[in-house]
Design goal:
With 417 residues, the chain is of the alpha+beta class. The chain has 13 helices and 16 strands. The strands form 6 sheets. It has a 5-stranded mixed beta sheet, covered by helices on one side. A 3-stranded antiparallel beta sheet has the order 6-5-7. The longest helix is centred in the last third of the chain and has 23 residues, at 303-325. 40% of the residues are buried. It binds zinc ion (ZN).
Length: 417
């Protein structure tokens, strides 16, 4: 009798529980890393015009997994899965179970073994989507190779293994890449993003940080748009690449309403205060765009360190503009981001000064012009005159030498090349 009642209950429950029809693919990503902003996750809705395959792959992004490939749940989403753990702790998936099972045994994607794959995929997608909205297409002319660069397909390795690394780079040493991540235009694999384990916790990876993934995707984008900037002998240009990566992470975070509200709440509406937004790559890089620069302190020749003055000038403009303009943070972010991207395309990017001057020339807003001039000046970058020579850092690979700064004078003609 009891059994009969239970089966009637099951039927009724299944009829009552709606089965949502997927109109878009849902995908979950980390808002930062798991220790920042209480492990907040963000949900993306991917339009059906961009069908995503399991892996995930699609939209010119392909995840190369080191474990089980991410699959879609019963609703076709990368979101929650109708599954349970067996006695040995393995996750068993029930693709065709009724609603009650889904209700009782669904696991969210962040508890699945492939969450890092899904999160890294979605974060890179957010970056590409943001740029493609503003620039229409991601193409750039490579005058050295005399060809047009296109986005093609980027391969993401969220947990780069020794074997995967050896296949890509047979001559390089994996051990040098702990706690690191990089973008590369690989001679045969094309655009590649690699993420490595932390030095002290081998089950933690740099792909578990929104900032780090967005920063590396930024390198990918800049290398398509402006291939001339990479591997330049000019230290300002090399540093520019790093600053672009950090600004990409900041702009990408600001595309989310939840994060805009959170940062305003955290800082009491004052973006000049340090926050999860201004600090890029909390657990790994920890660069704070809101912190003042010690101008008397000569920076090291390392590109990330050199980039900080430029990032701080740019972040300062954003924070000041939000203070003055009385428009929403979303509008502030979009208008400054578009100005920033437009300038990337038409500035010669040979020095921070050239870039700052181009930024000013690309806007008719007197407020922006004033803020650009002031914020660059605060970082010791004087936009009043174009330098004919620049003291540039010589690239040093030795860590001790890199801490010291060896500089040479470089003429403007050389800087433009
Ligand atoms: Zn970088």
């Amino acid at each position: 009798m009891l059994k009969k009642i239970f089966s009637y209950f099951l039927i009724l429950f299944n009829l009552w529980l709606p089965t949502p029809q997927a109109t878009a693919t849902d995908l979950m990503i980390r808002a930062q890393d798991d220790t920042t902003i209480q492990g907040l996750k963000l949900t993306l809705k991917i339009s059906p015009s961009l069908p995503l395959q399991e892996g995930p792959s699609g939209y010119g992004i392909e995840v190369i997994s080191n474990g089980p490939r991410a699959f879609k749940d019963a609703q076709g989403n990368f979101m929650s899965y109708n599954c349970y753990r067996d006695a040995r702790g393995r996750i068993i998936v029930n693709p065709q179970q009724p609603s009650l099972y889904r209700f009782l045994f669904s696991k969210p994607v962040d508890q699945m073994p492939f969450f890092d794959d899904v999160s890294a995929f979605g974060t890179v997608g957010v970056v590409f989507n943001m740029y493609e909205k503003d620039l229409q297409s991601l193409t750039g002319y490579d005058r050295f190779q005399q060809r047009w660069n296109t986005r093609g397909t980027v391969k993401i390795y969220p947990h780069t293994t020794k074997e995967q690394f050896k296949n890509l780079y047979p001559r390089k040493n994996y051990d040098n890449y702990y706690q690191n991540a990089f973008y590369d235009n690989h001679p045969t694999a094309g655009h590649v993003l690699c993420f490595f384990p932390m030095r002290d916790q081998e089950n933690q990876y740099t792909s578990q940080s929104f900032d780090v993934v967005a920063h590396e995707a930024g390198h990918n984008v800049l290398n398509i748009l402006r291939p001339d900037v990479r591997n330049s002998p000019n230290s300002d240009r090399r540093a520019f690449h790093e600053s672009f990566g950090d600004m990409t992470a900041i702009f990408a975070a600001l595309t989310f309403r939840q994060l805009r509200e959170k940062v305003l709440q955290e800082t009491g509406d004052d973006l000049h205060k340090p926050s999860f937004l201004s600090v890029v790559g909390e657990r790994i890089a920890n660069r704070d765009a809101a912190q003042a620069t010690h101008l008397s302190f000569h920076p090291s020749c390392e590109a990330h360190r050199l980039s900080e003055r430029l990032t701080k000038a740019l972040y300062g403009i954003l924070a000041d503009y939000y203070d003055l303009s009385r428009i929403s943070l979303e509008e502030v972010s979009v208008s400054f981001r578009r100005l920033f991207f437009k300038t990337i395309l038409n500035s010669n990017l040979s020095t921070f000064i050239d870039f700052g001057r181009s930024l000013k020339e690309n806007t008719s807003s007197l407020v922006f012009q004033k803020l650009i001039f002031e914020n660059f000046a605060k970082q010791g970058i004087d936009l009043r005159k174009i330098p004919q020579t620049l003291q540039v850092c010589i690239p040093e690979t030795h860590p001790v030498k890199a801490a010291k700064c060896s500089t040479i004078q470089m003429s403007r003609k050389t800087l433009l090349n």
